[in-house]
Amino acid sequence: MSENQLETIISERIRRQGRITFCDYMAACLYEPGLGYYTSPGRKVGTAGDFYTSITVHAAFGRVIAREIARMWRSLGQPIGFTLVEVGAGHGRLACDIMDFLAEREPDCYAASTLLLVEQEPSLAEAQAALLSVHGQKLGWRSPAQLSELRFSGVLYSNELLDAMPVHRVVMTAEGLREVYVTLQDGQLAEELDHPSTPHLEQYLARYGTPLLVGQEAEVSLAGLAWLEAVAASLEQGFLLTVDYGFPKEELYTPRRRQGTLLCYHQHRVEDNPYIRLGQQDITTHINFSALMERGAELGLTTVWFGEQYRFLLTAGIVEEFEAIESADLSEADKLKARLTLKRLIMPEGGMGDTFRVLVQSRGVERPQLGCIRGIGL
Ligand SMILES: C[S@@+](CC[C@H](N)C(=O)[O-])C[C@H]1O[C@@H](n2cnc3c(N)ncnc32)[C@H](O)[C@@H]1O
Question: Helix, strand, or coil here: 19?
Answer without folding.
Answer: coil
